[in-house]
């Protein structure tokens, strides 16, 4: 009886403590509701009405009209192509660099510093560097002219997206590499030692042991790289302004130009489509991550 009374008293004390601490969550919850949840539903509402004045419900007409818009289709195509090239490249290259730097190689600290340095470079400086290199009268054309090549305005040519992918990789590989190096350091050494004793070579240890333990980090870096691929708009905008060469016209350009014309319906509809696409892609990646890492968690 005394034991039950003690448990009841402890349970009441814990409930009182949880109730008291929940009051401290109110400012954070209110901030999330006010600045994230409420604006999201406002955007959903605008995507379903004809305009902010009439507020006439048109259901999916805005979405149908948007998918018939040539500028939107061009932006979607370019954004998908850029992400499909840049994101896997960022993951694979940063993982390779992390594996190389995880080994006992000379000047490992210096190499690591070199790859991290781009994180400290301001966006304006990055844009200036790329203009100096890839302008029609820039350093790259000066170099290629020594071999008789014609001068190219790289940012207004079919090579323009390659230039931006290079910029993206230069900016993001260092951070991804640090994440992979941290994950590599957490792999149990005893498993590596046992596999070495059993005769496994370096390639086998990587694919059958290290990569299994790195699976969660790979998916996390992939999601982070996907998010960062949408942030490259800053550099592209500063390099090419509102209406760049066709292959550089990204989804963010479309949304930025739509905002400038105050076309709230088109802007809201594009934002919802972009949000749904990100939710589906990231959701699929998380499901795959859970499936791949299931046996490790067990």
Describe the structure.
The protein has 15 helices and no strands. It is mostly helical. The chain folds into two domains: 43 residues; 238 residues, MetI-like (MetI-like fold, Orthogonal Bundle). The chain is flat. It starts with a helix and ends with a helix.
Mean pLDDT: 83
- Low-pLDDT runs of 5+ residues are none
Q: Class of the largest domain, according to the CATH hierarchy?
A: Mainly Alpha
Overall, the morphology is flat
Compute the separation of the termini in Å. 40 Å
* Main beta sheet strand tally, sense and closure: none
Helical percent range? over 70%
Strand content: under 5%
In brief:
With 298 residues, the protein is mostly helical. It is built from 15 helices and no strands. It has two domains: 43 residues; 238 residues, MetI-like (MetI-like fold, Orthogonal Bundle).
Topology:
Layout: H1 2-22, H2 26-46, H3 61-67, H4 70-102, H5 108-116, H6 123-134, H7 139-145, H8 160-185, H9 189-197, H10 202-213, H11 215-230, H12 233-240, H13 251-260, H14 264-292, H15 294-297
Features:
MetI-like fold; flat; mainly alpha
